[in-house]
Amino acid sequence: MKRLAIHLLLLLPVLFLAFKVLVLEDVTEPVKYIYTVTGVSATVILYFSICISMIREKINLMKFRRAVGLYGFFYAFLHLINFAIFDAQLDFEFIAKETIDKPFIYLGMLAFFILLFMTITSIKSLYKKYNTYHRFVYLALILITVHFLMAQKTISVENFCYIGIILVVGYYKLLQKIVQNNKI
Amino acid sequence: MNIIKKPSWLISENEVTPQELFDNRRTFLKLGAASLITGGSIVEALAKDNIPVANLQYIKDKNPNNLKLNTYDQISTYNNFYEFTTSKTGVKDLAHTLDTDNWKIEIDGLVEKPITIDVLDLVKKFQLEERIYRFRCVEGWSMVVPWNGFALKDLIKLANPLSSAKYVRFETKYDEEMFPDQRRGVFGSVDYPYVEGLRMDEAMNDLSFMAVGLYGSKLPKQNGAPIRLVLPWKYGFKSIKSISKITFVDKEPLNTWQKANAREYGFYANVNPNVDHPRWSQKRERVLGKFFKQKTLMFNGYEKEVAHLYKGMDLRKFI
């Protein structure tokens, strides 16, 4: 039951997006809209994924942590596909040039490759070997946040909220680490 | 036998146009022209959207380039109007606080005689016309809009600037009651009042336009009622909305976006596919309502009309 609810919740953004773009067709700027929905979904889900270990004493979702992370990757993948197909129209020369040229894009790409690496190494046999490298998710989150802020024309109050969340989560994680180290 | 043979040109009495109708033939022609105004593309759009009754009288744009208009709905629900919100789809629901009644425009600075005039009285002085223009936002989206209004140069001639006036400075109304983001002070999205400017020769160019209407009816509030600037060869942010002040000056005005980030936005902001925004490409654009992009044209397709204004200028430097 809990499993079903979590999967449905995580699928909701893509179902909503498909409904808006393909059924209602009432989106004025579809490409931009797909960027926003997939980007925000990936960001929120990935932030949530790193909080799972923090809240496990209250709500234990540890066995869903991999699934949550994979959904995060799924939305990041849709985001990239939108860039390649609709935005760049599969003009690979353009994609390469833009990626090298614009920090806004290469930061996002770098974050995507971190997530891709984590996705591949999340299968059991590889996870044993590579799980320490999964800490790169924090780097990915920082890159994603910078990428997100750079996409805005101006930084508004909502954007500062994201920075606030990073700082709070980062601080909490750091405290957790210090407490853990002192116990041993 | 006396057979009266009618000449071929003779027509019977009942086929002759009565004198009074003949005398009124020009009025009739005008009626025909009026019905033409609401013909073609506009009727098509009227059928699709809930466009308010097209009640402005204007000279129709023949649309020689056959630009395909965006719908009234697209144009009036996707707006950058930071005085309300940075959400483009959110402006429409907030814009009702903009009160266009008794809207005064101050025209001052280096002019023969500064004036303050009600926007309705100002508009009465001009024959309105339609301009179907491409509109390209610096963010990478674009649309085609049928504006109604008059040429900026006609307003400038009326204002009678001194020869020392080299630039025109425009200001959006500052009223915290009307514009929620102006109340936020340092937390506002940009500095207010919003300021834009033009070099005098740019302002006198035939393309520079003061819009008071859209699709034949008065401007929706979210599109910058009651009066706004439209500069089709420049990025959209130059086309300042809800103008309350026009000042003739001798120095280049510091426009809002240049003030906010001079590395990314300059005074000129000419549409140029060869000069990228530091963060994103300007080579292509997303036309509202379409999935695939199209190439952005030099000066947004108005090269013939405006390129001479920037002859000899390094367009990478003067962004």
Please provide the count of β strands of chain A.
0
- The tally of helices of chain A reads 8
- Give Rg of chain A in angstroms: 18 Å
Outline the low-pLDDT stretches of chain A. Answer: none
From the spread of the alpha carbons, the general shape of chain A counts as globular
CATH class of chain B: Alpha Beta
Q: Tell me the CATH topology of chain B.
A: Sulfite Oxidase, Chain A, domain 2
Write down the Rg of chain B.
24 Å
Subunit arrangement of the protein? heterodimer
Major beta sheet summary of chain A:
none
- Give the largest chain-chain interface (CB within 8 Å): A-B, 21 and 27 residues
Largest sheet of chain B: 7 strands, mixed
Q: DSSP strand (E) fraction of chain A?
A: under 5%
Low-confidence parts of chain B lasting 5 or more residues at pLDDT below 50?
A: 31-40
- Element order, helices and strands of chain A? HHHHHHHH
The outline of chain B comes out as: globular
* Count of discrete domains of chain A: 1
What is the helix tally of chain B?
A: 10
Under the CATH scheme, the architecture of chain B is Alpha-Beta Complex
Distance separating the two termini of chain B:
92 Å
User: What is the share of helical residues of chain B?
Assistant: 10-25%
